[in-house]
Amino acid sequence: MTRCSIERSVVGPQAILYSIVVVAGLLALTATPAPLLAQCPDGTPPPCAGLAPRTAAGPPASSIAVLYFETRDTADTYLADGLTEEIATSLGRVARLHIKSPSAVRRAQRQAAGNLRAIGRMLNVFWVVEGSVRRGAGRMRVSVRLVNAANETATWSDAFSRPASDVLGLEEDIARQVATNVAGVLAPAERTRLARRPTQNAEAYDHFLRGNFFLAQRAARAAARAIEEYGAAIRLDPAFSAPLARSSLTYSLTLDWGWPHPGVPDDTIVARASAAASSALRLDSLSADAWMAEAFAKSHSHARTYEGVIEAMERAVALDSQNAEAWHQYGWFLYVLGRHAEALGAFQRALGIEPGRAITCEHIARVLGTQRRYAEARPWIDSAIALDPAQSFYYRQRSSLRLAIGDTTGARRDAEATAGLGADVPFWGVAALARITLVPGDTAAAREIEARLLATIPDPRHLSLPASFIIASVLAAAGARDAAISYLERAEPGPALAVALADRDFDSLRSEARFQRVVEQSRPPR
C-alpha cells in the first residue's frame, strides 16, 4: 500500500474543473455509502470537458495564489520553493485572506506556463504573487509582484536585497506587504502572527527548507537526504519542532513505500518516527504537521490495532481544517480501518479544498475497488492518470482494475506503463507485467516470477508489507496456495494487511484455515 503527502504533478484545466464538479457530486456523502459519479454528464469518461464551476460572482477579493518563485541557478531551487511555500503559510495565518495550497498552485502554474489570467481562472483567485530569487556573494535578491489575475496589472512590486542568511526576515516582510496590499491595515494580532518565526537559527532553517525539497521528491535517495537535512536542523536548534515532525513523517513513509534502509531494522525506523513525533508535539502541541506525524508513527508502532491513529488525525484536521493533505491522510487511515463511507467523506473534503488532487482521486478508486464497485472506480483512476500521468503506481492500480473486469488488453498496456515509468523501482513493473501474463495453475511460472521479484529487493529477508502482498497475490493467482499464505503469515498482522487481504486475487484462499487465521489476526478493531 502507498500513501502520498506532497504532490508535484501536471494538471490540465479540464481535469481541475472535473474535480470541482465531482466534489459537488460527493456532497451527499455522510456516514452511509452513497453512489459516486461514475461518468461525466455527457456519458464520456473523465476528466470531463465543457464543464465550468459556478463562479458568477467571481473569486473572493481576498483570494491569493503564491506562485512558485523562479531562479536561474538549480542549486537555489530549494530556496525558491521554500520561500514560496513559507510565504503562503504565513499569509494563511491572516484569517481574512484565502490562500491556495502550494500543491494546487504548482499544478496550475505548470499547466498555464506563465499565463496569469489562466492561473487565476483555474485556481479561482483574485490575486497572484510572483517572484524570482538570485543569490551570490553572500546576498540574495528577491523581486516580487502582486498582480490582479484578471487584467495582469501589478498593484505592488518591490525588490529586496538581503544577506543570504536573512531568509526568515525576508519571508516576513514579503508576507506583510502582500497582506497589507490585499486586506488593508493589519490588526496588531495579525501582524504578530505574520511575524511568528519557527526558529531564530538561520542555518537550521536553511537545512529545514532543503529537507522539505528532498521529501517532496518521494524517492528513496531523496528521503535519506531529507532525514539528513532535518537532522542537521534539529542539532542546530533542538527547539525547532517543524523538522522533527517532518523527519518523523519521512521515517514513516520509508516503511510505507518500502524504501530501502540497509543496516537499519524496521523496528529502529519505527522507534525513530515515534520519538521524533513525540518531541515535535512536546515543543508545539498546536501543530497539525506534528499530529499527522504522530498518526503515521502510531500506524507503525501500533500496527495491529492502530491505537491512537484516528484520534491524532482528528486533532490534525481540527487544528487546520483547510489542510487538504490532512483530510486526505485522515481518509486513508479510515479506509485502512474499514470505515469506507467516512473515508470517502474525508477524501471529499480534501478535493473540496484542493480540486485536482490526483492522489485523492486514486484513493477514491481504491476504496471503490475494495468494495468491488469496479465500474464506479474506473473514472476516478482515469482522472488520477489524466491529472498526473507520470505516476507509475496509478497505472498499476488501473491495470489491476482492468484485469478485474476482464479487460486484459488494457491491463497489459497499463502494466507496461508501470514498468516504463517505474524503472528506478523495478519491483512494481515486474509484478504488474507478471500478473497479466500469469496462467492459472502454472505454479512453476509463479515461482520464477517470485524469484525475479525477490531479486529486485535489496534485502529479501525483510520484506515490506506491499512486497509480501504482491508476491503472495502472484502465487495465489497461479494456485500456489501454501506458498502464498506463507508470505502473508510473514507480514505484520493488522489493519493494513486486512485491506490487502480483501483483494480479489486472494479469493481462491478464503476457504483455507491458515488464510482465515491471518484474516482474524488482522481484523481492524471496532
What does this structure look like?
- Among the domains are: 63-197, ABC-type transport auxiliary lipoprotein component (Rossmann fold), CATH 3.40.50.10610; 438-526, no CATH class.
- 59% of the residues lie in helices and 7% in strands.
- The chain is built from 24 helices and 6 strands.
- Mean pLDDT is 86; it is low at 1-43 and 47-56.
- It has 526 residues and is an alpha/beta fold.
- The longest helix is centred in the middle third of the chain and has 18 residues, at 266-283.
Keywords:
526 residues; globular; disordered N terminus; Rossmann fold; alpha/beta
- Please give the alpha-carbon distance between the first and last residues: 22 Å
Structural class: alpha/beta
According to CATH, what is the class of the domain at 63-197? Answer: Alpha Beta
Percent of residues in beta strands? 5-15%
Q: What's the tally of helices?
A: 24
Short précis:
The chain is of the alpha/beta class and 526 residues long. Helices cover 59% and strands 7% of the residues. α13 (324-336) runs antiparallel to α14.
SSE order and pairing:
Layout: H1 13-26, E1 63-66, E2 70-71, H2 77-91, E3 98-99, H3 102-112, H4 116-123, E4 127-136, E5 139-148, E6 153-163, H5 167-183, H6 188-194, H7 202-215, H8 220-236, H9 241-256, H10 266-283, H11 288-301, H12 309-319, H13 324-336, H14 340-353, H15 358-370, H16 374-387, H17 392-404, H18 408-421, H19 426-437, H20 443-455, H21 465-478, H22 481-490, H23 495-501, H24 513-522
Parallel strand pairs: 1-3, 1-4, 2-4
Antiparallel strand pairs: 4-5, 5-6
Helix pairs in contact: 1-14, 2-5, 2-7, 3-4, 7-8, 7-9, 8-9, 9-10, 9-11, 10-11, 11-12, 12-13, 13-14, 14-15, 15-16, 16-17, 17-18, 17-19, 18-19, 19-20, 19-21, 20-21, 21-22
